[in-house]
Amino acid sequence: MVSAHVTETPGPQAVLSGGVPALAAGASGEAQVRPATVADVPAIHQLIEANLAAGHLLPRTADDLTRHATRFTVVTIDGRVVGCAELAPLSRAVAEVRSLVVDESCRGRGIGSELVEELSVRARRDGFSTLCAFTHHPSHFVRLGFSIVPHHWLPEKISTDCYGCPKFRVCNQFAMVFSLNGDSVRTEPAGQRPYQALPPAAELAVVRRSSEVRAQ
Questions:
Q1: CA gap 4, 20 in Å, rounded
Q2: Which has more confidence, 205 or 173?
Q3: DSSP for 55-105?
Q4: How far is CA 141 from CA 35, 100, 113, 152, in A?
Q5: If you ran DSSP here, which 8-state letter would residue 15 be given?
Q6: Cα–Cα distance between 147 and 139 in angstroms, integer?
Q7: Rg over CA atoms, the chain
Q8: Entry pTM
Q9: How far apart are CA 31 and CA 109, in angstroms?
């Protein structure tokens, strides 16, 4: 699975429901948040590659990033990309935070929180009702107002990505969701919108794995 990972601690006001404080200025310039373009792909690719060793991100090819460049938001300081995140649609109602990473030299400034906040604004504008993320470090997203939920509450993610992922049955990531309209965070089939149903055996495996991870 393509995961979201924040390697910094947001400030106490960095919550999606109340907004994120302004980014701290860099040593020689001000941090700026903007939509990514194809021209940013080499920098985004380098940023992701530089953080693969930690084991919290899956690699992305340059071709994949080029196809999805306009889904990304980047943070720059003095023209250099120091943070990125992708808003990936999973259905007409659910979007995912993917490839969220901040350059090691710029962590601790709220850049990760600002990226998630910007993606939430874009998701609301585009008509999504739920923002989700899969992460090894749920505390960062909890501080931003997300809730931990069972994996099977996000059937869109499972059917879109998890079936083909080499870590499908050994995934130790936490599923996180944030309601963009204030409604219940539960997104499993409830008659409100279309879903792709999971085969019973696959759903049972996901439920069991979610329980095991939370029990660890």
A1: 18
A2: 173
A3: SSS----HHHHHHTGGGEEEEEETTEEEEEEEEEESSSSEEEEEEEEE-GG
A4: 22, 12, 9, 19
A5: B
A6: 10
A7: 17
A8: 0.72
A9: 10
**For residues 50 and 86, is the Cβ–Cβ distance under 8 A?**
no
Q: Tens digit of pLDDT for each residue in 94-108?
A: 999 999 999 988 888
pLDDT of 116-137, one tens digit each?
999 999 999 999 999 999 988 8
For 149, the enclosing helix (H) or strand (E) is: strand 147-149
Give the H or E element holding residue 209: helix 200-215
Q: Would you state the structure tokens that stand for residue 164, as one six-digit string?
A: 């083909």
Domain at 31-215: CATH code: 3.40.630.30
Helix (H) or strand (E) holding 112: helix 111-125
Q: In Å, what is the CA distance from 116 to each residue of 20, 29, 38?
A: 9, 22, 21
Mean pLDDT, rounded, for 19-47: 76
Q: What share of the chain is helix, strand, coil (3-state, %, to 5)?
A: 35, 20, 40
